[in-house]
Amino acid sequence: MRLEQIELPVNNQLLDDYWSGNEKLKPFYEYEYNDESFNTRYNYLKSKQYETKALSKIIRSYMEPLGISDKIEENLNALENGSVAIVGGQQAGILTGPLYSIHKAISVLLLAKEQSEKLNERVVPIFWIAGEDHDIDEINHTFTIVNGAPKKRVYHERSNKKTMASTTAIRQDEMRQLLNNIFQDFGETAYTHDLHKMCLQQLENSDTFTDFFARLMNDLFKDEGLLMVDAAYTPFRQFESSYFVKIVELNEQIAKAVVDKEQLLHNAGFGTPINATLNNANLFYVQEGERYLLERKDRYYQDSSGLIKLSEEQLLSVAKTKPEQLSNNVVTRPLMQEMTIPVLAFVGGPGELAYWGTLKDAFHVMDLQMPILAPRLNITFVDRKMDQLLSTYELSIPEVLSGKAQSLKEQFIESVQDLEAKQQIENVHQLLKEQYEKLDSHLNTQHLNLHSIVEKNLKYHEVQLEYLSKKIEQQVFNKHEKIIRQFDLIQAEIYPNENFQERVYNPYQYMNSYGPNLIQDLCALPLSISRNHYVIHL
């Protein structure tokens, strides 16, 4: 395993400005990303009271069915004794979802280790599973590579309701078949059988999307000590009861603070990542596992269909007695995180960094402080086969990302075309046109009105010539298919669907070629949170 750092062109202005410490962003974030901020934030957290004993107990009860390793035990004990945390999270995708899910987890682990050393205090890593999210279409698929192109593999079973990932049951037979197809796409290696078997075993013990996700994540990260909790875990929701009460009581102020801040963010040139409204309650009501987004309307909290309609007193009663019936949205989840966990820093992607930029004043409304924002690691994996191809065609990762591999492919195809055959077909076509024009002219002199038939007959021959031309092109393509497919494979692996690899593929594709120790070996690399893009040669 070899590590390389590269600089890529800016494709997210807010992230670039965040790293450069642009003055324009100061109104939107509490801290800049530096050692002084971590010291200040740590001292702030130590001046506050957090129920870390209760939190540790909840996380322990959540993780016990998954399996608690020695390192997880150490971190649970540290949290119980008041340690602060690095937090990051993600939705419960199939086979852990896109690679950036594990990139976030690795970022959380590395930053917790780094800050433990710098602060000389134990900092624990916590992964917040967004099991309350209900957009199943975002998490019901993954991609593999088939015939040199990304192929979408989908779990097709659908629910008619907007049920949360943590309450959406999975059909074992369909998910098992999906896993079989995915591993077949990966291809057979020395590691395939054991990896496939392990995934099927974890599936057998899983009832929902979140169950399956959590079991796989724990299998990958248990030896690194990663703590996990599902936002929809009932004991955790009950722990949040008093905090839900506070969110309801300050609901209007929170909404106004976010709307005003988002307008300022827009005026600064960074768009409107939330599209917040003054009437949005920024809470969901959960009924039979289905989430209903609440708005304040006519002194009531209700969903858009009017199925749910609660007065403030009723909503406060729910928060106090049945908090598991409430769920946070993109605005209140960071607030809830801050109230329940002593968050030293939150690890997020570019999208999260953008919407957190609308929340600073909402934190203040709640008498809270926004934590440090730590952009997650950005990583591209390159296996040995891909390294060889890149070397053969003298391509770098930045060049592939800028489209050079696709350009070289098009140039190669053009260079191997049989130009003589094309010219001869064009000559035949031209000759036919001339002869048909003469025939049509002659028939006209004979007062034989057959122009449409002559034209139709000519078109028939033109279609046949086009068919012949395409067949010649196909034969040429087949003759050079190996080289063309190599260009396709470079594009598919490094920049699939014109997107970063980390947003498309899952980690098991790379574990299948590298081995089951991929995560441990990645965590042992000298990685650090920075603006650079890491290329890891497997």
UniProtKB/TrEMBL annotation:
Does Ligase appear among the keywords? yes
Under InterPro entries, the record lists: Bacillithiol_biosynth_BshC, CC_BshC, Rossmann-like_BshC
Return the EC number: 6.-.-.-
Superkingdom of origin: Bacteria
Limits of the Bacillithiol biosynthesis BshC C-terminal coiled-coil domain: 379-538
Bacillithiol biosynthesis BshC N-terminal Rossmann-like domain span? 1-377
What the protein does comes down to: Involved in bacillithiol (BSH) biosynthesis. May catalyze the last step of the pathway, the addition of cysteine to glucosamine malate (GlcN-Mal) to generate BSH.
* NCBIfam families in alphabetical order: thiol_BshC
Q: Which family does it belong to?
A: Belongs to the BshC family.
This one is known as: Putative cysteine ligase BshC
Q: Give the organism, scientific name.
A: Ureibacillus galli
- In the UniProt record, the gene name given for this protein reads bshC
